[in-house]
Amino acid sequence: MLPAAFSSHIKHHREKRPSSSWGVVRAARTKRLAQETAEDSVLAPSQVESDSGSVKERSAATSCRTTPSGSSIQCATSLEGHSTDDVTQPTGGRTPADQTDVHRRFPFKEHLFSRVTCPRKMERSGHSQRTPEEVELALEVLNDELAEASPLDRPSLELATQALTERLVEMRKQQREAKNPPESAEANKQSTHEYSSSLQAVIVGDGIQKYTLIKIPKQDDMVGDVYLVRGDPKAEYHYQTALDTLNALQSRNIMSDVTGGGRMSVLRAEKKVEIYGYSYQYGAADHSITAKMVKEHLGDEFLVSFGNYGY
């Protein structure tokens, strides 16, 4: 049984980055990459169904544009026979009126893609020239957009941030493989169960920090799902707390998923931990799972509380 939440009056503010001429140039490049990623991410692979021995392909229609100021990306996706209401949002919801509004806001034919057949990780001709640093800057742009996005714009931005995070993980993996020799045959013999069990379950720092809850679903010889808590007081965005672990799992072709995020206040001197909030990119984590894991990690002498409040 976890103790009740203790009182907290902590406020959080995201500081604005200082502006500069270099920052303007960087913003233009990263916004362009962010827009390309938003367009790519909403182009879902064609879905094939068998119907009485015949094959039917459902088409995806996508429209993307930027606002006149160029500061935000707006996208809409629909599948034949399915409305945009199929997309689940962590907060708020979309009504049929909202769906009608989507079609009014995205009438541009030049950005409309139909009958699309594409791989899950679609690459543009210029993608190979992107650096991980550029991709990460574009990911920061999308996270900033998410922080101020309306419920209507949020689903497309969430898809874009997820696609860009996966792309960054893949690029980091390729970097490691290019710099480091392949692992020894003995190391490669370690099973998925052995490796996932060897990972530290909880990694958190001191003080107020963002955190993510990572799930490694049962696969190969695993006996069940494995959860990992990753927090970092230095992380400005939630994906940064999970990136190293996702990279390590990706390098071994182990499937994983960030189930959600939030914040925690770790006061080791006072032996108190408070877990709360959510992530713009991943939604809210199941704080009850996090609280149980943190309690086991820090010890029974710590008072660990959690709640679905705040950011």
From TrEMBL:
One of its GO terms (molecular function) is protein histidine phosphatase activity. The active site is at residue 238. It holds the Pfam family Ocnus. It comes from the Eukaryota. Residues 60-92 have a biased composition (Polar residues). GO terms for biological process: cell differentiation; sex differentiation. Residues 1-100, 171-193 are annotated as: Disordered. Keywords: Differentiation, Sexual differentiation. Substrate binds at residue 210. Residues 171-180 have a biased composition (Basic and acidic residues). JanA and janB regulate somatic sex differentiation. Belongs to the janus family. This is 14 kDa phosphohistidine phosphatase, putative. It comes from Eimeria necatrix.
